[in-house]
Write a structure and sequence with these properties.
single chain; 174 residues; mainly alpha; 3-stranded antiparallel sheet; 4 helices
Length: 174
């Protein structure tokens, strides 16, 4: 069930990333919501922020894809498994062939999935911060709407990731 959850969540994040990349056109001058008359030019996001936005989306997609592929492989191994004995998992590939996989390897695989998901979430969060800076102005200007968008994102996502990491570590050591 945990692997199903990882694959499902990663699929949703991957879809969101594709939609974000498709709809993002930071080179378009009308893409920003910062009023050029009311704000100084220092509040407009420089070009490297748009470059980072795309880079973080690609990094996030890579991490989610890594995590999903490992989780899918583990799911297939578990679905074909016959039984679990002692730390060994017996996998029946055919009626004649039996493969033994160490239970530690499965736990390491699940930890690798979790790491991919955590890195994907971190890069997605950084990409969203860059998107907010492009649309609403850089954080250094301390505009209300920019801070109101970024502060919850920068507080709640790391808090949820710490909780996720603690639960995954507890589950993998039990």
């Amino acid at each position: 069930m945990a692997l199903d959850g990882i694959v499902n969540v990663n699929s949703l994040f991957t879809l969101a990333l594709f939609l974000g990349i498709v709809n993002a056109d930071p080179s378009n001058p009308s893409y920003t919501l910062v009023s050029k008359n009311n704000a100084s030019s220092s509040c407009l996001a420089p070009s490297f922020v748009a470059e980072d936005l795309i880079a973080y989306h690609v990094y996030s997609f890579s991490a989610f894809l890594f995590s999903s592929l490992i989780a899918s492989a583990l799911k297939q191994a578990i679905k074909t498994s016959g039984r679990v004995l002692g730390g060994q998992v017996t996998i029946r590939l055919t009626n004649l062939m039996v493969v033994h996989i160490n239970g530690v390897v499965l736990r390491i695989g699940i930890l690798a999935c979790a790491c991919g998901t955590v890195f994907g979430c971190v890069f997605l969060m950084l990409g969203l911060v860059n998107l907010v800076q492009i649309k609403l102005g850089v954080l250094a200007c301390r505009d209300f709407y920019t801070l109101a968008s970024c502060v919850p994102l920068l507080v709640l996502v790391p808090l949820a990731l710490v909780l996720y990491i603690c639960i995954i570590l507890h589950a993998s050591t039990s």
